[in-house]
Structure formats: C-alpha cells, structure tokens
Amino acid sequence: MKKILYLVLCALLLAPMLLFVSQAKADTPNLIANPSVEIATNGQPANFSTNKWGSNTAAFTYGVGHTGSHGLSVAVSNYVSGDAKWVANTVAVTAGQSYTYSDFNTSTTDSELDVEYIDATGTASYVYLQTVAASSTWQQTTSTFTVPAGVVGVSILHIIYSNGTLQTDDYSLTAVSQTTTPTPPTDPASANLITNGSFETAGTTDPSGWNRGGYGTNTRTLTYASGTAHTGTRSATVSLSSVNDGDVKWYANPVAVTAGSTYTYQDYYMSAVATPVVVAMTDAGGVDSYVTLTTAPAATTWTAYSASFTVPTGIKAITIYHLLNQVGSLTIDDVSLVAGIASTPPTDPTPPTNANYVANPSFETANGAKPTSWTQDSWGTNTATFGYVTNDGHTGTNSAKITMSNYKSGDAKWYFTPLTTLTPDAQYTYSTWYKTTAKIAAIAMYTDATGTANYFPLSTPLVGSAAATTWQQYSATFQVPSDAVSMSILFVIESNGTLQTDDASVTSYTPTGFSEPLISLTFDDGWTSIYDNAFPLLQKYGLVSTQYIISSYIGQPYYMTAAQISALQATGNEIGSHTVDHPALTSLSATNLTTELSQSQKTLQKDFGTSAALNIASPYGDYNQTVITAIQKYYVAHRSVDVGYNSKDNFNPYNILVQNITTATTPADVASWIAQAKVTNTWLVIVYHNVTPNGVFDADTTSTAYLDAELQEIKASGIPVKTMTQALAEINAQL
C-alpha cells in the first residue's frame, strides 16, 4: 500500500534547499501559493515544479483544470518502477499542529497522497496518507495529518505510480483550528467521535468528513447518492467487479484518541459477502499500524456491526476502515465511534422481511455512463444498442434499455453482478418490470466450481398488448443448482425491437405446498425406445406416466406404433398431445397453429379415446401469449420445459413447471428433486425423452440403468406418482 521506499529515492532528486513560502496570515488559511495554478511564470505554474524518478516515461502538462483555465496533468507510460508528480513548494508548518490537505483530481488509475516532512537540517522523511481511487470525473480528496516533533516544513505529494493519467487542481493546505477542536464529551459513552456518521451532510461531491480509499489491482467503484439508507436518505457504497488483490473503502477523517482507553466502533451495513473491519492507528511520528477487528458476516438486509478495542501506548489518532476485498458490494450508514464499551450493539427495529439480493436493482446508482453493478452483453448475429435511461423508470428515474436491429440470431441483455451468497438447492423468486416491443425470455445463468457457465430457462414472459408503453411485471421462481457458486438472471431480447427494464429483484422463496407431494413422469415424442426400454421399468416398479405423442409420427421409423401406444395406455399410462408435426408453435401462422393443436387432439382421441389428449406439451417448450390463448381453446393444461416445482401459490395449469432429464442428469440429481418435493409438498414433473441402453442418442437421452435407479428412488420415496390428469384433479380440488 505504501510507497515509502520510492519516496526516499525521490528525495535524492529534490533540491536540497528548502523553498519556504512566507507563513500565511490568519485571514488566508490556504498555505499553498497559487492553489488554482492560474498564475504562470514562463509558461509554467508559479510555485509548482515537476518531479519523477524510477523507470517510466512521464509527460507533464499545464492545461485545463477543475476551475479557472488551468490545471496540472501527468501521464505515465512504459512504467516499470518509481512515480511522477507535480509538487507545490514546501510550506512552513508547526510541529504538533494538525493540517488538512485537499485537491480535486481525475485519473485513469489509482494514485496516492504522501506527505514529505522536512526537519531543521533539511532532512526529508515520508509518510503515506491514502490511496486515491481512479475517477473519470473530478472528485475531491481530503486528508488530515499531525506534524511530528522537529518538522519545520511539508510538501504534499500526489503521485501516480502506474501507466495512466492523473489531473489535479484547486489545492489546499490549512491548519486545523485548535479552538474549534471539540473537547472530550462529558458523556463519552454516548457521543459519536465520527463527524457526519449518517452521511446526510454532503460536500462538493462526497460526504462531508469522509474520504475515498482503496489500493491494489482491482476494479472498484465508490458511490455516494440519495436512495438506500438505514436512516435518513443517504449512505455510502463501494463495489468490486474484479479483484486480484487490495481493497476499497469509504473512511472518515482520523479521530484523536487516548492511549490505553477503550473505544467501540459501530455501523449498519449491507453486503452479500463477508467484509473486514480494520483500525488504522497513527503514532506521534505519523507512522501507521493496523489492527483487524471481527469480520462482518454477509448480510443482505441492514445489519448492525459492533466491535470494541483498546488503543495501544503511543497511538494518537485512529481511522476505521470497513472495507471490501472481494467481488461484491458494501453499503454502510450510521457509523459511530464512542469511548468505552457499548452495553448492547445497535438494533434495527424494523428489519426488512425479505431482502433483495440484487445490488442497485432500480439502476439509480451510476458508474459513469452505466449503472453500477450491471453488465451489458450480447451474442449472435444482431445489432444491439445499450442505453442507460435517466428520465423514465418504473420507480425512481433510471432504467436500462436495449434496442435490437438486424436480428438473425442470439440475444442481448443487461444482467446484475452474479450473486455468490445464494444457497444451493434453496428456492428464490426473480422479478423485474419491463416494457418491450420484442420477443423476450428469462434465463438463469450459473457458474459451477470449475468456472463453467451453465444455463436453464425460466418461464417465458407473456407479453401483453400494452407492454410497449406500460410497465409490466415478470416473476418466476427458481431453485439454485447444487453445484452453483454464483448466479445471475438474464432477461434477454431476442428479436428486433426494444426492451427496457427496471426494479429487478431476487428474494428468498418458500412455496405454499399442497396436502401432499406429487410426482408425474412424462415422456415426450413417442420414441420406440420408450416402449422398449422405459415401459418395462415402469411396470417393474408399478408406476404410471403421461406419454406426449406427436400424432403424425405414429408408426414412423423410431416412433411407437398405435398398438404400442395402446399397450401403454392399457396399463394406466396417459396419452397427451405433442402437436401434429412438432413445430415451434410461436413461429406459426394463426391457421397453422390451430391445425397443430386441434388436429393432434382429434387424431389422438379418435385412436385412443376421449380420455386422451386432454393436456398438451408444447414442442421445445416454445410458447407465448398467443400460443397459450390458442391452447386454452382445446386443452385443460399445458406443460412447458420451464424449470421449477408447482406449488399452491405459483400454480398455473397453462404453464406446468418441470425438471428436465438430459444426458448430464444423474440419479443423484433426481433424488435431490424428490427430496425437494417431499419437504415442500409440491408437484414434481419430470420430463424424459429417449431411453437407450447406453444413454447415447441426443442431448436429452438417458440410459436404461439411470432410469432404473431413478424409478427405484421415486418408488422408495413413497410419494404418489400420478398421470398429469390425475395430479391436476387432486390439485384443482385444493385451489
């Protein structure tokens, strides 16, 4: 974090003679001459000089600034070692006196503040003050320090120590008034030593009395805005989107303390990851040491943190860092430091009942021209334009928008930073508000321990006729896969048009169960392999299924004959519709859609009786509002391939949720589905396709051995296994 060795070498390059400016008058508190660098001498800023050392290329510019017409810039390239900086002339100071330095800055990389102390012999020493996070807009950085004994002059060095550009302007160095230093409170157990602990008082761009901090190789963002707060309207947030090392934090100005005394630090915070709390302790010589307090556990609702510590001998001031050092975000509010040990930690009288795991869900917090904690992405052959709308939100003022043109394939989406704190095998509800003129879909994306990205569909958004101009809500439940280590939801656009979203949420979900758990086994397409390999196993365990038959494929090569289907039906298996020719129903004209639905039902009922084809499974799980409306004219229910469990609170007979069997599905996976249905009293519907001895045919094929083990597990569970029509009858009676 510190660059002290670099600074020692830097001293060898500085002129040995001290260039003191005259002591400022009482009515001129800024000790830095020409602080806005508007005064020039021979084309260079008066009272400032350039300095660099080490192996790097530094270009110094006297150009446009924060105020006025001038500022200072240094650009570093070819960096191997050292640093570069503009340096104000050394100013005379008083030992034991505290001073506050500030400047305005922008940078493309992290920079650093250090103080150079000069004693009466002209000897220089150096103390690190803080790391300054990169910022694409002007930000104010402030730091306070106390001059050690024997020091007569100081320079503040704002340095850049990597490839990038640093601009600075509007410098200030002022003595902290001794008369305004607050005296110790008479009731130390209740007085907060941290100024502006609730962040309600704003400075120019940042909360008054607070500083930006961070170091290392990471991508970090610090935000201060109205909106989410524990009390009042403001809080402070940091986030990391990538981390190799280091951290990021907001921290209050240093607080004077008494050695040997005990202090208690408290705050309220929200973070999806565990966050360290560190005390930086400064001695009389300005040297820092660090003590780590107890780590704050992950908390997705406002949670109280409290820890006490005793100040060691020789320590004069402390700074508390509640920091973030891994991918995620941390929001803090109502920060306090009091003398003594708090009798009880702070309590929150009204904690949220079901917290939203999504950071910046309403897009109100910006990171430059993009929403914080959100990523844009597209693939395939299309032209996707991403917009950050600042004047049209479902709530607040902001939302995210995508405009798609030249579409041939693929999709585009904004998605929130993947969550790492969702519990494997637990259920959650995803919700968002949207406006659209296009085809859209919802897809769960998760990463396993190997870093492999996996995907499964959620229920299809049924876009209403007013969706182009009126905010619509989408909601779906999902279960976190047992091997997931991070997860996000992709709300995608996959045709020409627009998609605008706002108010995303992921919240914990507990289903409302039926009177008992149920299982239905379904087989799609009518493959001969089902009759040859699955039917004997169904009979072995005394289980029944629903067979979704493609009516025009009956008797074709690789598909069951009418006699084989009748044999299945005669032993209690149900016959359902899977259309006439297995098309993607959303691609059909109204006439062809009607034919696929009505003629399939007519053929199946003619061949297998009126108990057949009462419900349908759409090919590929493809449907939209038009398809569902057409299905309702002929069928009492529709089964999709959308993943989930059917419960009393989410039940929709025209979108029955399932668990899909693929070549990657194991009997252990099926066992976990059974356990979930049993503990929640939900309806588990399992979708099979081909069943071959070796499990080889296509991505949806399972092996005879796996099916045997899965049916054995189902039988042993004691959960009733019913056809779709039988299960629907039991469920409808409870609704």
Topology:
Layout lengths: L3 H10 L26 E2 L2 E2 L2 E6 L3 E7 L7 E7 L5 E6 L2 E2 L5 E10 L3 E9 L4 E9 L2 E12 L4 E10 L3 E12 L34 E6 L2 E9 L7 E10 L3 E6 L2 E2 L5 E10 L5 E7 L4 E5 L6 E12 L4 E8 L5 E12 L26 E2 L2 E2 L2 E6 L3 E7 L9 E7 L5 E6 L10 E10 L3 E9 L4 E5 L14 E8 L4 E10 L3 E12 L9 E8 L2 H14 L4 E4 L12 H9 L3 E4 L12 H19 L6 E3 L7 H7 L5 E7 L12 E5 L6 H14 L2 E6 L2 E2 L9 E2 H14 L6 H9 L3
Helix pairs in contact: 2-7, 6-7
Structure description:
With 735 residues, the chain is mainly β. It has 4 domains: 181 residues, Jelly Rolls, CATH 2.60.120.260; 172 residues, Jelly Rolls, CATH 2.60.120; 143 residues, Jelly Rolls, CATH 2.60.120.260; 215 residues, TIM Barrel (Alpha-Beta Barrel). Helices cover 13% and strands 42% of the residues. The protein has a 7-stranded parallel sheet, sandwiched between helices. Strands 3, 6, 7, 9, 10 and 12 form a 6-stranded antiparallel sheet that branches. The chain has a 5-stranded antiparallel sheet with strand order 4-5-13-8-11, with no helix packed on it. Helix 6 links the parallel strand 42 and strand 43. Helix 2 runs parallel beside helix 7 and helix 6 packs parallel to helix 7. The longest helix is centred in the last third of the chain and has 19 residues. The relative contact order is 0.07. The N terminus is likely disordered.
